[in-house]
Amino acid sequence: MNGPQREELDLRSFQALSFDCYGTLIDWEAGIGSVLRAWADETGLPADDEALLRAYADNEAAVERDHPEMLYPDVLAQAFRLTGDRLGHAVTDGWAHSLGQSVPDWPAFPDSAEALARLEQHYQLIILSNVHRAGFVASNQRLYGSFAAIITAEDVGAYKPADNHFNALRTTLADLDIAGDRVLHVAQSLFHDHVPAKRHHFPSVWINRRHHRPGWGATPQPRAEWRYDLEFTSMKSFAEAAAAEGCN
Fold it and tell me: 48 vs 22, 23, 45, 89, 226, CA distance in Å?
């Protein structure tokens, strides 16, 4: 089944929240898009920002699928080269390097840090991210998050929507003495997160950051079954809902 479960979900029943980072807490479309925009302007490519993100999206997912051992900066660089090939404008090594090294510059969404600070008063917070360790360390300088565990693609040797992150999450929950049904996964990407969360029977919350824009942006359209239990358009509104249920 695709779509929301449309069932009552008691946010007080969970001990932990697992988070996607890029797209949910960090504005990866702004980060990637700024480099793509500068490159397109330099090369004279007549494409708007959304068209550039759409052209990029499937290439990153393909590199992650085909090269699960590759560190995220190299994924970004190779995906950029493939995007240039698709658009008929070659990406130089300099531009590929620029995108690959840009993760520390990607901005946090304005509501992320405050929402995490509120949520960590009630829940243990866990990161499940398609990034390398150093990249998340840099991003957390913008989030100020206190995380009980951080699970990156570098740690598990694969990229979501592969199963590795969610297998590692089960092990991490056992280490934290948290039952598997007491964690709620929170993410923007249906493709990367809600598909495997459904496969692993984790309830999930969709942070629909693109609610005001059409299309999928830098995220591929999901090709497998997905599900989420609750939907919010921001981390702020999710944190407020948790507080309203007494999770503060």
Answer: 22, 20, 9, 15, 29
Q: What topology is assigned to 28-105 in CATH?
A: DNA polymerase; domain 1 (1.10.150)
Q: What is the tens place of the pLDDT at every residue in 222-237?
A: 988 999 999 999 999 9
CA angle, corner 153, sides to 40 and 115, nearest 5? 80
User: How far is the C-alpha of 88 from the C-alpha of 70, rounded, in Å?
Assistant: 25
Distance separating alpha carbons of residues 16 and 5, to the nearest angstrom? 20
What are the sequence ranges of the domains in the chain?
A: 11-27+108-244, 28-105
Quote the Cα angle for 48-220-105, to 5°.
65
Alpha helices in 91-247 (DSSP H): 93-100, 112-119, 133-143, 153-156, 164-175, 195-199, 235-244
Phi, psi torsion values for 83, nearest 5 degrees: -65, -45
Query: Considering 20, 27, 58, 193, which one is annotated as catalytic?
Result: 20
With a cut of 70, which residues of the chain have pLDDT below it?
Answer: 1-8, 246, 248
Q: Does domain 11-27+108-244 have CATH number 3.40.50.1000?
A: yes
Active site residue 20: yes
Query: How many Cα atoms occupy the beta-carbon half-sphere of 210 within 13 Å?
Result: 19
Residue type, 127: I
Q: Is 143 left (phi over 0), alpha (psi -120 to 50) or beta?
A: alpha
The residue whose two tokens read 């995108």 is 99
Query: In the prediction, which pLDDT does 44 show?
Result: 95
The Cα–Cα gap between 168 and 171 comes to 5
